[in-house]
Amino acid sequence: MIKLDHITHKVKIAILPIDESASDKRISGNVYIKVPGLRRNQVQHSIGYFFLLDAPQKFKVVAGGEYYREESFDIDIDDYQPVLTTGSKPENPKIRVAEIKLKRK
C-alpha cells in the first residue's frame, strides 16, 4: 500500500451556466453539470462557476436544472481565453471560462 499525503488536481476550465432569456443572464434555482467519463469532475463555487479538475482537452458537458432543460455542450478548452484569476496575487494563473447558455423549460 502506498500512502499519499495529498493529491494535486489542476483546474483546467471553469463552466459558467447562464440563462439566455434573462436580461442579467443570471441562473434561477438549482443547476447541475455532468461530464461523462470524469470521476471527480467538478467543484461548484457559490457565485455559479463549476471548476473542472483534470478535464481532457475536448469533452462533453451535460447541464440542466430546476427551471432549465437538460442539454449537451461540446467543449474544447483551446476555444476559450484565460480570464478568471485564481487568487489575489498577479502571478497566479488565470483559468479559461466557458459560458454555456441554458434554455428554460
Question: What's the short version?
Answer:
By secondary structure, the chain is mainly β. The chain has no helices and 8 strands. It has a 5-stranded mixed β-sheet, with no helix packed on it. A 3-stranded antiparallel β-sheet has the order 2-5-6, with no helix packed on it.
Overall pLDDT level: 84
The percentage of residues in β strands lies in: over 45%
| Strand order within the widest beta sheet | 3-4-1-8-7
Relative helix content: under 10%
User: Strand count, sense and closure of the main sheet?
Assistant: 5 strands, mixed
Q: Enter the CATH topology name.
A: Immunoglobulin-like
Structural class, please?
mainly beta
Terminal CA distance reads 49 Å
Could you walk me through the main structural features you see in this protein, from its secondary elements to its overall organization?
The structure is a single chain. This protein has one domain: Immunoglobulin-like, CATH 2.60.40. It is 0% helix and 48% strand. It has strands at residues 11-19, 31-34, 42-44, 50-53, 58-65, 68-76, 82-85, 94-102. The chain has a five-stranded mixed sheet, with no helix packed on it. A hairpin with a 2-residue loop joins strand 5 and strand 6. The radius of gyration is 15 Å and the shape is globular. The mean pLDDT is 84.
